[in-house]
Design goal:
Layout (H helix, E strand, L loop, with lengths): L6 E5 L10 H9 L2 E5 H6 L8 E5 L4 H10 L6 E5 L9 H8 L8 E4 L4 H9 L1 E3 L2 E6 L7 H13 L4 E4 L8 H15 L3 E6 L7 E6 H6 L1 H5 L5 E5 L4 E3 L28 E5 L10 H9 L2 E3 L2 H6 L7 E3 L5 H17 L4 E5 L9 H5 L1 H4 L4 E4 L4 H9 E2 L5 E4 L6 H10 L3 E7 L5 H10 L4 E6 L7 E6 H4 L9 E5 L4 E4 L2 E4 L10
Parallel strand pairs: 1-4, 1-5, 2-3, 2-4, 7-8, 13-16, 13-17, 14-15, 14-16, 18-25, 19-20
Antiparallel strand pairs: 6-12, 7-19, 8-11, 9-10, 9-11, 20-23, 21-22, 21-23, 24-25
Helix pairs in contact: 3-4, 6-7, 16-17
Length: about 500
């Protein structure tokens, strides 16, 4: 077995070539072999020339993972996963099959843009406090567990991103989830329907939970290529409470080309977790053609090699710096120039981008939101596959964070907490440890940056981490997770249907 060969479990984003990251592109280009589901390989066909390509059909995930590991005897392999491999993707299965056969240091999970952040960016949505991510497919997860998680999310008034909402054979599950939200007092919640996000035929429109329940014709438009975002506390932007269906009047016609308009004068750009390798190709292009690039100094330094225009940070308090950037972007746009405001991670998740999306701030100026690799995704990829099933993101700013973590974990969610100070984790770790002492944790500080620090262990271990600092991401792995060779591997449920 060539000792230098590597297995890359690559997230290629939701579809658009612009939402592929530089690292994903490099991983595919470096590999002699590429393995994946046929339609996903079609999305990166331009990178496959001269490579040995193995394409398999739906339901052959285990076969793909086995083949990818076996091919390491002959060279490096890219195991392709759409979106992000940690979000209902191949990360967990790929690591699980590889464990015991190869040194896991030879396996790299390459994070990607997942559909819910791409859809949120398209619609101008920001999650300021929390979001729960749930798949309605009960092929690998018992329906009783899915329903329990939906009830908990609804009771906690969390926004929900719903994957795999409806198929030709699975029609009643969506109705039941909408009933749960309505029964919890959320019948009037806004509901974004995002179909084929960033792919040809993309269409996004707004409705409400109540209207979706009332209108069979709306539900029939929902399929396995559709993602739903149900409103909740702390969700800002998007529809803005207009009370009318549609991002415009009624459902927009499907777009033939989902790429961003080159005429966007103001761009809100997610620069990912820190390492420029995780920038999307779209973000690189936007930053490269911008006359003015605004953001914190650490983000400006990260993109300095590709910036085409003047780079400006700002001084003063946090609020003063944000206002200064918005004013500078508005002024540049008024002069016909292009401005980019940089946000760490993904603009839709716990960032200050919601301020720029307020109609009163930038007026009628066209604004494009470019999604980035989120901190949750980067941290998860660095420690293995702690998510892969249903999970919840919390901003970590609330005093009741330990209680919220415990409740979500009890419901079977993996939980990611942002903005944690490494020295103040005892309450959260103790609460989770009392609930499930065997559930693995990880703490990642400054993910993908040169100063990155990682700790993996059980809750009691992480109550006293061996490092201090801010910008920490705390991950409580999902159920059925274990630590192998320093990596967290979560079983998604394939073992219930396949022998491997």
């Amino acid at each position: 077995m060539p000792s230098e060969s590597k297995l890359f479990i690559v997230g290629i984003g939701p579809g658009s070539g612009g939402l592929l990251t530089r690292r994903a592109k490099e991983a595919i280009e470096r590999s002699e072999f590429v393995v994946g589901y046929g339609p996903y390989l079609d999305l990166v066909s331009g990178l496959l020339g001269g490579k040995a390509v193995s394409s398999t059909g739906m339901g052959r995930e285990v076969d793909r993972a086995k083949e990818a590991v076996d091919l390491l005897d002959e060279g490096s392999v890219a195991l392709v996963s759409s979106g992000d491999p940690n979000v209902y993707g191949m990360a967990g299965l790929g690591l699980e099959v590889a464990s015991g056969k190869v040194d896991l240091d030879r396996v790299e999970v390459v994070p990607g843009i997942t559909s819910f952040s791409a859809a949120a960016s398209r619609a101008g949505i920001t999650f300021r406090e929390s979001v729960a991510v749930i798949s309605l497919s009960d092929l690998l997860t018992p329906w009783s567990e899915i329903e329990k998680r939906a009830k908990i999310s609804s009771e906690m008034k969390m926004p929900m991103a719903i994957y795999n909402p409806r198929s030709k054979k699975r029609t009643w599950q969506l109705d039941r989830i909408l009933d749960i939200v309505a029964e919890g007092g959320g019948a009037d919640q806004d509901l974004l329907v995002a179909k084929s996000v960033s792919r040809r035929g993309e269409a996004l429109w707004w409705t409400s939970v109540e209207k979706m329940l009332e209108r069979e014709e709306q539900r029939q438009k929902v399929d396995m290529f559709t993602l739903l975002i149900v409103g909740g506390e702390g969700m800002a932007g998007g529809r803005g409470g207009s009370g009318e269906d549609g991002l415009v009047k009624g459902e927009p016609a499907p777009k033939a080309d989902p790429e961003p308009s080159p005429g966007s004068r103001i761009n809100l750009v997610g620069v990912g977790p820190g390492d420029p390798a995780h920038l999307t190709l779209e973000a690189e292009e936007i930053i490269g053609r911008s006359d003015l690039i605004l953001g914190p100094e650490r983000h400006l330094q990260a993109v300095g090699g590709i910036a085409g225009g003047e780079m400006i940070s700002a001084e003063g308090s946090f609020e003063e710096r944000i206002r200064a950037r918005l004013c500078a972007a508005r002024e540049a746009a008024s002069k016909g120039e292009t401005a980019s405001i940089l946000f760490g991670g993904d603009p839709s998740v716990f960032s200050s981008s919601w301020r720029a999306l307020e109609p009163s701030v930038l007026g009628q100026t066209e604004v494009h939101v470019s999604p980035g690799v989120g901190a949750f995704s980067a941290a998860a990829s660095r420690v293995g596959a702690p998510l892969v099933g249903d999970f919840a993101l919390l901003s970590g700013r609330d005093d009741d964070t330990p209680d919220r973590v415990s409740r979500l974990a009890e419901g079977g969610f993996a939980v990611v907490v942002y903005n944690q100070n490494a020295s103040k984790l005892a309450a959260t770790a103790d609460a989770a440890s009392a609930l499930d002492p065997e559930r693995p944790f990880s703490l990642v500080q400054d993910a993908t940056r040169p100063e990155e620090m990682i700790s993996v262990g059980m809750a009691a271990d992480l109550a006293r981490p061996n490092f201090e600092g801010l910008r920490c991401t705390l991950i409580l792995a999902g159920p059925k997770a274990r630590i192998t060779d320093g990596r967290i591997i979560t079983r998604r449920g394939y073992q219930t249907k396949y022998d491997y």
